[in-house]
Write a structure and sequence with these properties.
binds zinc ion, zinc, metalloprotease, 62% helix, Peptidase_M48, hydrolase, Serine Threonine Protein Phosphatase 5, Tetratricopeptide repeat, globular, two-stranded antiparallel sheet, mainly alpha, 2 domains, 22 helices, TPR repeat
């Protein structure tokens, strides 16, 4: 029997990321050099703009779902989208297909995909206090897109990989995400895309972000405030910011630099507005949920340390304040899976599906819980729904195959195992799939 909590899903995911990275080289390869849109200098670049966009479109929906989808508060999303697009319009690459949203995740984070799909979490929006800080954050993320940091890094990675013939050192930096493993989803497929930027990239994004936000008429103190906010969160609740640090290393240096620039290079903008009221108005509903969100942050910290009973208490408190919160329901469901209580897990994931049926993750967890209960038909249904919304996760294909096997539908199961092997050729799950196909006579043992 395959256990979803088993570590193999993470390990095989690393392999999958490796394969995906390899497949990138056929996606948007251009000649080895391009002119950087920001600096005007030639840079080593193997990825075309259309390559950046298709990579973004393929992977960003998986990350947004891992972060519990866009918030259902359409006012908040359209506020962010408007702010982001106004800002992006005056940058070096105004024609990229930008989109901005707030995702339901409660950690303190923001990130950009190379085609311009940008997200902030509920956690980081709660920490900021005015539009100048928000513009600083969005400007920083837009800057990563403008300076093509992801594409340049991936070009170097593709090259390193070609040189080292399959070296996977690039992927070793990926962190295990226990919750994702419990959900049977594997580590987020986009880990490699969102891996750490270099310090030089961060400095450049800070510098450009400040330029963009002041060009938009915002007070440069917003960048100083943002750096201050992030440092404050870091000392107050370090675990909440962990991911932010992994994608955006923070340091005193960045705060000092922002302050110096605001007082010198951007002194002319010192009387520009920060628009505190506008920010407070647009985030009022979110701020009313602060208590529940802080309980979720605490619960996730417990989950990360595998203190599942403490996590359960935190998620209970969150749900008593916000009984319909999708992220809280999904987190509680994952916690119940980790506590080996599949029936309770399923109750919570079913409630999550009811409050946000368009979001994929709860369907998957519901499937995992049903599988643990031995209800393969119900599990299969959950995985099918997930795949309809978010195709391309090999873990889901594998779990479907296991369900079909459990139902005695050998030929259907074999079809899914084959499909799994096609998308993910190595690791323990692949070995398992291959063994089954050989036993059932669908694959010759010499096929390997
Ligand atoms: Zn950054």
């Amino acid at each position: 029997m395959y256990h979803p909590q088993n570590r193999i899903s993470t390990r095989s995911m690393k392999r999958r990321d490796f394969l995906w990275l390899a497949s990138v080289s056929t996606l948007g390869l251009v000649s080895g050099c391009a002119v950087n849109p920001v600096t005007g200098e030639r840079q080593f670049m193997l990825m075309s703009e259309s390559g950046e966009i298709s990579l973004d479109q393929k992977h960003s929906p998986h990350q947004f779902s891992a972060d519990y989808g866009e918030v259902q508060d359409s006012n908040l999303n359209s506020y962010l989208d408007r702010k982001g697009k106004d800002l992006a319009a005056i940058t070096h690459r105004p024609d990229m297909p930008y989109s901005f949203r707030c995702v339901n995740a409660t950690n303190v984070n923001a990130y950009a995909f190379p085609g311009g799909s940008i997200a902030t979490t509920r956690g980081i929006l709660l920490e900021m206090e005015n539009e100048a800080e928000l513009d600083a954050l969005l400007g920083h993320e837009i800057a990563h897109v403008n300076a093509r940091h992801t594409a340049a890094r991936m070009s170097r990675a593709i090259m390193a990989q070609a040189l080292l013939a399959g070296a996977s050192l690039y992927l070793e930096s990926q962190q295990e995400d226990y919750a994702a493993v419990a959900a049977g989803l594997g580590a987020v497929a986009t880990g490699a895309l969102l891996a750490s930027y270099s310090r030089a990239n961060e400095r450049e994004a800070d510098e450009l972000g400040m330029q963009y936000m002041t060009d938009a008429g915002m007070n440069p103190q917003g960048m100083v405030g943002l750096m201050d906010v992030l440092q404050g969160v870091n000392s107050r609740k370090p675990s909440a910011i962990e991911r932010m640090f992994s994608t955006h290393p923070m340091s005193q240096e960045r705060y000092d630099t922002a302050r110096y620039r605001a007082e010198n290079e951007y002194a002319h903008a010192r009387d520009f507005p920060v628009h505190r009221e506008r920010y407070m108005d647009n985030t009022a509903d979110l701020r009313r949920m602060r208590g529940a969100i802080e309980d979720m942050q605490e619960g996730e910290e417990h989950m990360g340390r595998q203190r599942f009973h403490e996590a359960e208490d935190s998620f209970s408190r969150a749900l008593s304040q916000a009984p319909e919160d999708y992220a809280a329901l999904v987190l509680m469901s994952k916690c119940q899976l980790a506590l080996n209580r599949p029936q309770r897990a399923r109750n919570f994931s079913d409630r999550a599906v009811r409050v946000y049926p368009q979001e994929a993750q709860a369907h998957h967890i519901s499937g995992v819980a049903a599988m643990d209960l031995g209800r393969y038909d119900a599990a299969l249904e959950g995985f099918r729904r997930y795949e309809d919304m978010l195709p391309g996760n090999p873990n889901t294909i594998f779990l479907k195959a296991v369900c079909l096997e459990g139902m005695g539908r050998k030929s259907d199961s074999a079809g899914e195992y084959e499909r799994f092997l096609h998308s993910s050729g190595a690791g323990e799950k692949a070995d398992y799939a291959r063994k089954r196909l050989q036993e059932w006579g669908y694959m010759d043992s010499s096929d390997e």
